[in-house]
Amino acid sequence: MTGFLLRRAIGAAVTLLAISVIIYVVFYAAPGNVAQISCGPRCSPAQVQQVADQLRLDDPLYLRYWHFLQGIFVGQDFSTGTAVQHCDAPCLGFSYQTDQQVTQLILTKLPATASLALGAMVLWLILGVGTGVLSAWRRGRPTERILTAITLAGTATPVFVIGLLLMIVVCGQLQWLPFPQYVPFTDDPEQWAWNLLLPWLSLALIEAAKYARLTRASMLETLAEDHVRTFRAYGVGERSIIGRHALRGAVAPVIALNANDFGSMFGGAVLSETLFGIPGLGRELVHAVNVVDLPVVVGMVLVTGFFVVLANAVADVLYAVADRRVVLS
């Protein structure tokens, strides 16, 4: 098991390094005046030259990338013309639009996105896997047809439509909840949960439809295998077969999909964050793209890639827990 974990850790580190190289080359080696793009259209020639000096644009590309990578691990200093600012590790640079460290900017937005992603993930796994298992168990019955129709409708419905309907019905007509207004967990945990309930539900209902269909297909495939027929021949109860054997064998694709969805949520939940006014990474990324704040865009994409790789590394470990044969592969 130790060797398995070590291989996965090395693989994750290599993947992150490759992602950083690709992102840096795409954004900082693109044709055009990178300093002017990073600084913005209103910058004076002196300010553009200052940005070019900070980005070390006169150095070869490989040397610039080395300094960028060095800043992530040990930090780096930036000259403002009249003073020197130190950026602590992990340093992703400075925003030339807000004159703020990108790392600090990301850290201020991260709790909101993490709150949205974690709560929605718990709900979509409960709803999606539960619905998929029930649909496979009741195959050929009216229950399965109803659940299949619901999951198809959920898959075809955009998240902002579900969110708007929930706000109109739950907050407007029924007045069960106030209109969402994000409250940090550290300020008031109860209000934090109540104000995130609708965003969680809107995301979970959409994602749960995918997980229900995937779980149903995996369950049906597992239930058709020889060892399950053997259990039935020995008189093992259907509930025991479903819960202890078939579900464990069908969980691998669910883990893989959940890892990708959860990781991409850190930067990809733009519609939900915009609709419900959540000050998260997705909204900040859209703003950075609109104002062409290049260091922030690069930092956000790197952070999103980091969480995707991290989630997939955790998924590999969960594979090993669910199926010991994975350790040997």
Automatic annotation (TrEMBL):
Domain ABC transmembrane type-1: start-end pairs = 110-319
- Cellular compartments per GO CC: plasma membrane
Give the way it sits in the membrane: Multi-pass membrane protein
Residue ranges crossing the lipid bilayer per the database entry: 9-30, 116-137, 149-172, 192-209, 294-321
Quote the subcellular location field of this record.
Answer: Cell membrane
Keywords from UniProt, A to Z, are: Cell membrane, Membrane, Transmembrane, Transmembrane helix, Transport
Record-stated family: Belongs to the binding-protein-dependent transport system permease family.
> Know the name of this protein?
ABC transporter permease
Task: Provide the species name.
Answer: Streptomyces sp. NBC_00119
